[in-house]
Amino acid sequence: MARGSTSVEVRRDGVAVITVSNPPVNALSLDVIASLQRDYGEALRRSDVKAIVLTGAKGRFSGGFDINAFDKKPKNEKPGYLSIDFLTDIVEDAPKPSVAAIDGVALGGGLELAMVCHARVSTSSAQLGLPELQLGIIPGLGGTQRLPRLVGLPKALEMLLMSKPLKGVEAHKFGLVDAVVSADELISTACSWALEIVEDKRPWFRSLHRTDRLPALEETKKILNFARVQAQKQSASLQHPLVCIDVIEEGIISGPRAGLMKIPNISNLGLTPRRIHKVAIVGGGLMGSGIATALILNNLLVILKEVNEQFLDAGISRVKANLQSLVKRGQMTKEDYENKFSLLSGVLDYEQFREADVVIEAVIEDLSLKQKIFADLEKYCHSNCILATNTSTIDLHLIGQKTSCQDRIAGAHFFSPAHAMPLLEIIRTHRTSSQVVIDLLNVAKQIRKTPIVVGNCTGFAVNRMFFPFTQVAYFLVDYGLDVYHIDHVITKFGMPMGPFRLADLVGFGVAIASRKQYLQSYPERCYKSMLIQIMLEENRTGESSRKGFYLYDDKRKASPDPEMNKYIEKSRSMASIVQDPKLPKLTDDEIVEMMLFPVVNEACRLLDEGVAMKASDLDVASIMGRGFPSYRGGVMFWADSFGAKYIYDRLKDWSKYHGGIFEPYEYLSTIARQGLSLAAMADGAMSRL
After folding, report:
1. Which one from 9, 77, 92, 132 is the annotated catalytic residue?
2. How far is 107 from 147, CA to CA, in rounded Å?
3. What is the mean pLDDT of the chain?
4. Domain 5-254 in CATH: superfamily?
5. 112 assigned to active site
6. What is the Cα–Cα distance from 444 to 646, expressed in whole angstroms?
7. Which listed residue (112, 378, 425, 609) is catalytic?
8. pLDDT tens digits for 242-275?
9. What is the pTM (predicted TM-score) of this model?
10. How far is 204 from 197, CA to CA, in rounded Å?
11. Of 439, 441, 427, which Cα lies nearest the Cα of 255?
12. Where in the chain is the domain with CATH 1.10.1040.50?
């Protein structure tokens, strides 16, 4: 029996055409996969190859994966070794674009292979589908994740559950293929398309990262639940259609690689997380005590350090109060309370830190203090101990500047209240070891947080993305809008609190420290309001002093302060501001746009700089870290409801009158010009990761 194979031909224009040959339908046998890996590797190594076109011999792309190959799979191969290690890590994440040239059939694994490519060109007669459920199995090469992202969830469910293929023209209508041409033009069109991707004339989409065709989470659950009901009506005894729906749901809710997840230069190294048994925390304030609570709730031993007995007692009391609130709500028994609380110990020095596997610094945003703490930690902690900081804004290079162990330093940024908020932002510098990141990802899993790994910069991903939100809020107040009306508009939009109520909660000291960091790093995009400084001079520090933008009663209930206008007038006077008569007349929708479009603009910077991996990470972060309304799908998903061009035009118009705070970033300009989706964008350079 002839062995299947692939062949490669490099054209004069720099396109490598790889052809699958395994008669009669070019099935993907293990021989074909091995040959395909070799040819892809060669094409990626060769400097004369700019792009790749993948096709099948004799007018057939591929009829699917050879199911007889399951019996021949090497026993030592881990699950997903084809869908992850080859198709995703080598083909989809390759530095050179691939285009699938489809004629005849692209069924099952054949279509899954085509969907991994960055674009697809087909003939009108080509058949594309995933018929695996007819065989009692589910698609195993990523089709459950990529198909909904290309054709939308309802159409994907129809194709999967009914094993219904599409012809080329219909596939083009639903977005599964990008162009339909004659068989004679197929290869030349695919090659031209691939070169246009290289030249930035066509979008470079990684289908696994796209979210623009997916509905909001609540709508997703409704669609999938309806699909389950229909599947059970059709075949009550069959389980694999329900398993298929479960897999689709897991990918949409937890991310397409929730079992397939890869972080560049980390999870592809074969590292395994080390056992984390004991965590030490420096600082028992609101954040430190919240982090301690999150850890002991999940059975980790915790050492809490403070500078004196008074502060230590206060920190331990906060942890105790956090646990007692769970008992009062019936979420914890008294016995559980005693067991969890016994995992916490308090100290006034670093002696016991020698036993810690991880240290998390959670003191105030004071760079010199953090530098001293990290220098001390290097002396006392063992050489494999992870040294993490909970800083919300300060560049990690500065924090670790006075140490010689920057490979062990990372950010572990929790969100307040730390024991309740579901997000953990893990920050790595170019010196942070991959093992440290793997270990922190495992800690996130242990304490039931959703992690995102981001690059190092002032503010990191979440706070930096939203720093323009606060800047614009102060700008609008100085130019005539009411503090309380702005907060009302933002809460009506769906966020839990407006920028001024949030400033009170966080405290003005933190706000001043953060503003200083942003002003140093991004001066051209900062609005220099004096309002908080003026209020601090009057001993107004926020909720902790019961006076900030709001007044607070004994139960911490907020109410507007009738004296607020005098501070605002002083701020306006110091800045010599002449009020813009147009701004106080803004509608509520215009206020939302003016405050959140700069957030979208900053998100584009984060993607372009490689601080964040993909737009969907920022969507998750905006919901879990900043309370962006989940039913709106995240900030980038929401932005797509307007379109990049509309957002760009609005920002450009505002920047003409109000300066750099609204100046649209070039990356946004490119997306707008090309008519691309914001939610589908993944960064190209990944320079900070």
Report:
1. 132
2. 12
3. 89
4. 2-enoyl-CoA Hydratase; Chain A, domain 1 (3.90.226.10)
5. yes
6. 38
7. 112
8. 888 988 887 876 665 543 444 555 554 557 889 9
9. 0.65
10. 6
11. 441
12. 463-674
